[in-house]
């Protein structure tokens, strides 16, 4: 099939799946369809290991959305499919360039649509497809658009057709058709501007020979002064961080115990400080090791101090993790506390990658490229696992289990709450849960969230 066949096929599929429906199972089906069609359309040379992994994550993300229908799984589906489409055509382009490519194509959609020669192939034969497009589809689309416009502007014009009853929501159909075509067109027929192509070398993981030349970063500092400035700065920062770690741990583990509310407030404040500190630490190291110092034989002390600073920041992460664990033991699990672990884990990964960057003499782009994949992986983990179920199952073991909070604020906890209601003989709680489940299961087939279909009454 040609590109325009894929565009019209997936537009038709979008209309069938979403007309007069809410978002649910239909988006999962659409995501799987896009994934499989991309596999068929992608030439063999572009079916790299990365492409195949993205194919699997796209299908799994689509299944996850069909199962949960929440925002993390929606984000996973969108990002996975965009990456899959991007990799199917550009196996050597850096992933981060997907962002400007996506933005540019959204803004240039109208211009690219009317450039028919670029996406509808020329042919010398007058086949059935040409006649259908020219004699039926194009006139029908134009008539439909202007009929809607004229009907909105004239009651008498609209009343001409009022005697005919047609169970069709014209405006919804038009909106879904336009949205479906917009998505399909940009997915199958996106373009990468030359200006973006030229920026690909900036995101390379390895230094070029030109970058290895020793030269000062700033005109007002010579190389020796800049190197010594880095040594003094990192030495002072290491001393400062040592003092902070001491006071940080003293306040957390030795000082007079706080109330649970104070403990919660202080834990979140300190974790935020730790994460900000680590981000700043990585940025400072990127500043000093963005070029020539990676290959400077006299930069040994600078590298050692940078690695010590990384190690001290790892200790800081461990301290914050221990405190968050204590907070959970005192107050129970919540989304926010699990998010703290996620951010601390990403911070630790960032420090490890920074160490690899220094040791392996990698560019700053290596750090950014690598972290972008870890952020993507975090989104996948958030979408594939029922974290609400985990939170509820763990908190159920506590004596101060807040039933109403988990019923109203924790997603996908119904299975565990039903078990809790049966164990405690709480008929009202069971009735409330089943009522919520009944409302979710009342949706039409394509709008269903599969999770609720698995709950036994």
Can you put this structure into words, describing what you see?
The chain is mainly alpha-helical. It has 3 domains: 198 residues, no CATH class; 153 residues, no CATH class; 66 residues, no CATH class. The chain is built from 20 helices and no strands. The longest helix is centred in the last third of the chain and has 32 residues. The two termini are 47 Å apart.
Number of domains: 3
Count of strand segments: 0
What's the tally of helices? Answer: 20
H/E element order: HHHHHHHHHHHHHHHHHHHH
**Form type:** flat
Radius of gyration: 29 Å
Mean pLDDT: 86
Helix coverage percent: over 70%
Low-confidence stretches: none
- C-alpha end-to-end distance: 47 Å
Strand content: under 5%
Instruction: Give the oligomer, counting copies of the same chain as homo and different chains as hetero.
Output: single chain
Structural class: mainly alpha
What does the largest sheet look like?
none
Organism: Chryseobacterium edaphi
Protein name: DUF4173 domain-containing protein
Keywords: Membrane, Transmembrane, Transmembrane helix
Transmembrane segments: 6-39, 51-84, 96-116, 128-150, 170-188, 231-250, 270-289, 301-320, 340-358, 365-387
What secondary-structure arrangement, pairings included, does this model have?
Layout: H1 3-18, H2 25-41, H3 49-68, H4 71-89, H5 98-107, H6 109-114, H7 128-153, H8 155-159, H9 170-188, H10 194-197, H11 223-253, H12 260-288, H13 300-331, H14 335-360, H15 364-384, H16 387-395, H17 403-409, H18 414-424, H19 427-441, H20 450-453
Helix pairs in contact: 1-2, 1-9, 2-3, 2-4, 3-4, 4-15, 11-13, 12-13, 12-14, 13-14, 14-15, 18-19
